[in-house]
Amino acid sequence: MGYFETISQVKFEGSESSNQFAFKYYNPEEMINGKTMEEFLRFAVSYWHTFTADGTDPFGQPTMLRPYNKFTGMDLAKARVEASFEFFEKMDVPFFCFHDVDVAPEGDTLRETNKNMDEIVAMIKEYLKTSKTKLLWNTANMFSNPRWVHGAATSPNADVFAYAAAKVKKGLEVGKELGSENYVFWGGREGYDTLLNTNMKLELDNLARFFHMALDYSKEIGFDAQFLIEPKPKEPTKHQYDFDVATGLSFLQTYGLKDHFKFNIEANHAILAGHTFEHELHVARTHGMLGSVDANQGDTLLGWDTDEFPTDLYSTTLAMYEILKNEGLGTGGLNFDAKVRRGSFDYEDLFHAHIAGMDSFAIGTKVAKKLLEDKVLEDFIADRYSSYTAGIGLEIVEGKTDFRKLEDYALGLGEIQNKSGRQEYLKGILNKYILKAIAE
Q1: How far apart are CA 202 and CA 257, in angstroms?
Q2: pLDDT tens across 394-404, in order?
Q3: Which of 186, 214, 267, 347 is deepest in the core (most CB within 10 A)?
Q4: Catalytic residue flag (residue 102)
Q5: Tens digits of residue pLDDT in 172-227
Q6: Do 221 and 259 touch, CB atoms closer than 8 A?
Q7: Does 99 participate in catalysis according to the annotation?
Q8: How far apart are the two ends of the chain, measured CA to CA in Å?
Q9: Cis before residue 236, ω within 30 degrees of 0?
Q10: Marked catalytic residue, from 49, 99, 269, 275
Q11: Could you say which of 92, 100, 102, 359 is catalytic?
Q12: Torsion of CA 369, 373, 377, 381, to 10 degrees
């Protein structure tokens, strides 16, 4: 049966198209750095927001109208698999992502939960045999069920730690069976609310032990996917251990895990950490740790994770600037960890949202590519730091000076002349490039 019968194949038709179910800027066949745009951007659909989210919020009941809402239990899970692959095909996306409980309901016991998962995984595996859409990454939900009230790998209860290990063990097995290219660890409740009842050192040590066990088991079963950590500063725990990229990097270095992990960076999480999206991407990239991206945006008027579809062209441009400088995302991709608004409840809105997001990143890619080709920012930055390419600056960079020599140099200086940073000028240039890309 068809679940989205009113929608045909979404195709690229160009900026002049009036077809609301067509790409205006995302041309999957356009070449970017020697790859097609489809190959370079590696778009993915998030199973949870697209197929399981129902529009519930703290003040209201579900609003989403979905063709499979009449089903329950495993019948609902199977209908969602059928609907998801129809959606993937009509959107022509190369990847999707899921948490374990997104695709299969939890049972009364772990054995029953695993049995449900096995049944759905077998169904997904059959679809993967003929679908172009593949699994970008999977992960385990260890934040929704009440058992995770105090965390998973950082729980003060060893039984919870063991249960979490069993969940991830199953997730690694599922990832291998379905050919996942990555496995994500998002510590939804790996943190604390108050130090009055927290042994932080033990919790961090246990989290590291958990990651090392996951690495050992993945090697044991021959699952060679890239491991990813997804930073988030708050929600639901006040003090998250994976606050941002810099905090996560420090943790990985401390516990000997840096060579085995990269970061899955979410735009909205960056904002919650007090950073920009491009800041987090930049920090990860410059340390060789940029693995994948959860593409969304937040609302600057709201202090929580709103997970909106990305339409901010400044953000997509500066994000793609970092990704292009990273020479792509390797085994990672641009996963739309985004949900339609509660009032956008028709299934057509799912298509509108993904089209808008894909077009926005396509524009950002074109602008960023042109900026890099013209060396607009590169040349400006090089000139701004040119004092470190000769004389005393070069000696500083090459480690050929010390405080005594620097003091002698400084004592001979007259009035120091700084150069303007010209931030407004550069923003004007960015405007020019974005508007030009849209016009073309």
Answers
A1: 17
A2: 999 999 999 99
A3: 267
A4: yes
A5: 999 999 999 999 998 889 999 999 999 999 999 999 999 999 999 999 999 999 99
A6: no
A7: yes
A8: 40
A9: yes
A10: 99
A11: 102
A12: 130
